[in-house]
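Q: Here's a chain of 487 amino acids. Please give me its 3D structure as tokens.
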Amino acid sequence: MTRPLVVDLGFDLGTTVTKLTALAEDGTKLLDLSAATLWDEYGDGRAERDPSGVVSAVEELIARAAATIGARSLDGGGTPPVSIRSIGVTSMAEAGVLVDPEGQTRSPVIAWFDPRGEEQVAAVTPELADDFPARTGLPVTHVASLFKIAWLRDNGLSLTGLQWLSLPELVIGRLGGRRVAELSLMGRTGFLDIHTSSLYRPSLEHLGVTEDFIPELVGAGSPAGRVRADHPVAAARGAVLTVAGHDHAVAAAAAGSAVTASAMDSMGTAEAFVVASDHVPGPDLVRDLCGHGVSVYPHVVRGTTALLAGMRTGLVLKRVLRLLGADDEDGRSRVDHDSLAFRGGRGGDIGVEGFSMSDREVTVRLHGDSPTPGRVWRAALDHSTAHAAELLSHLGTAGVPIERLVLAGGWSRMSSVLDARRALAPSVEVAAIQQPGPRGAALYGRWAATRGGSVSSDLRPPAAYFTSVPETDSVDHAPPLAKEATS
């Protein structure tokens, strides 16, 4: 009898794309799939989606993955049965949903960038405004889930009997798992005291809810049940389920940068620096970091705290490329090459602004007589690097050095970007993994299914676990599967 092909699936529920990576039992990548993340937009930055759309996208990708992998013939013509051993799910933070005791959703998924909650932030008492960042590691802004939930309450939704779930927790519940609240995602809501890893009571009191509002707290990679026995994809039935955690932290772990003094530089539309620390800074330092745009929350690896700093880098760079008429592949290649001649400065007297997460505009100032596209592009990169250096400099006061920086994301493939970012750390490199988010989620599923021999009270995997499973794109006994994508 042919031995089943054991598969671990990892999902990354992103702002623009929902991604899946399928790994063989030895960690070999079998397949990448993706589907567009669709939002209903209502103007003024407001965006939401129906929770059922989140779940259906995952269900469709599970079915596609099982069918595609199962259709591949091995040497000799046999087709082994596919057995999905685990499913791990990571996602963007802050966005989630309220569910009732029967599991029915009672709210839409409001996008993390949606401005709803601004009025509720303005109504916070001075005492909570002072204590909140020190204890939760988050600035008092509408981005924190707390204030979006307060907006829902103030607009007529009764919170009595409801629970808050992040998107991975919603998906896992729909697949058959139990309700849990993973620590790194909880650390982005405003409901977690990062110094005690327990619920932050002032936030609960601010909403007028009890501790039952939040499910059981668990670490990333903790088993959270199994796929139900009547799931339509037979290969998935009984698969171990786990919440992998916050997407940026999961990507950092998968790329090998979740160790002390290392940082992940994830360069997408937003640029996120995820820095690994072996300690939680004291409350006063955490409050100060929040004031400088650096948030603090539990990492997804054992014994580690994450410090997150964000910038609007990708958005600014896209607009600069459009201004230069270089927003296609040939144009990007041209300015990428030409700008290397201007390294070591900021493009002379060219100014580029708009990188802060609080900025609303992008400004390019051309004071010289003959600014070339290469000079303007280099100026944009150098100004963004200078802004990043200022942002990251505050970590030194918290005793968190950055000695190694790992770049990931589409921008990291440009030589000029890598060259500019070398100013941020003694060692700067590009991540070897193409899709660290969904691959990391799959590795968390693998960890949950096998437990990695852990005997620690902290059930999160150690950072070394991820480097012990090298990435390869094919297996010895079969050709690699083709990559698929939908948009």
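Q: Can you summarize the key feature?
A: The chain has two domains: 5-248+436-467, 263-273+280-295+307-431.
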